[in-house]
Amino acid sequence: MADVLAEGYNVFDTSKSPSGTVKYLSSPADVISLIQSGKLQEHILLVRGGTTTFLAPALSMGAIGVITMSGAPESHLGILSREFQTPCVMTAHLTSSDSRYVVGATDEAHFVEIAQGLDGKRVRLDCTDDEVGRIVADD
Q1: CB-side neighbour CA atoms (13 Å) of 20
Q2: Digitized pLDDT (tens) for each residue of the chain, 139 residues in all
Q3: What number of CA atoms fall less than 13 Å from residue 12's CA on the CB side?
Q4: Closest CA to 17 of 81, 77, 72, 64
Q5: What does pTM read for this prediction?
Q6: Are 85 and 64 in contact (CB under 8 A)?
Q7: Distance (Å, whole) CA 21 – CA 120
Q8: Pairing of strands 19-24, 122-126
Q9: Of 58, 51, 59, 50, whose CA–CA distance to 30 is shortest?
């Protein structure tokens, strides 16, 4: 069985299980660059939070999967993910770490750790559980 690298909230149940290389997008310019590269559908998109509105163009252009480091399924990005039927795992945490997102109490090191732990890795999203979404190594 493949290693579960991270877990978080599953935004909606789906049998879709997209695979791709995690791409951390920290700014609108990163999103535009990825869209212009023509390689959007090769990547699972990693963003900081559920209010990351600049990801909307990528969803409308066929993003295959999204991971957030904070936010809830009821957030802007959660709603858009459901609308576009894009598998999404929110408030992901690395299974190898004790660090967890806590509203108003999480320092920058938490986000850096997740970005460094996932960016560039080949993964598959497992969103079949009612509550827990999993980011699985896809070697």
Answers
A1: 20
A2: 579 999 999 999 999 999 999 999 999 999 999 999 999 999 999 999 887 788 999 999 999 999 999 999 999 999 999 999 999 999 999 999 999 999 889 999 999 999 999 999 999 999 999 999 999 999 7
A3: 17
A4: 64
A5: 0.95
A6: no
A7: 6
A8: antiparallel
A9: 58
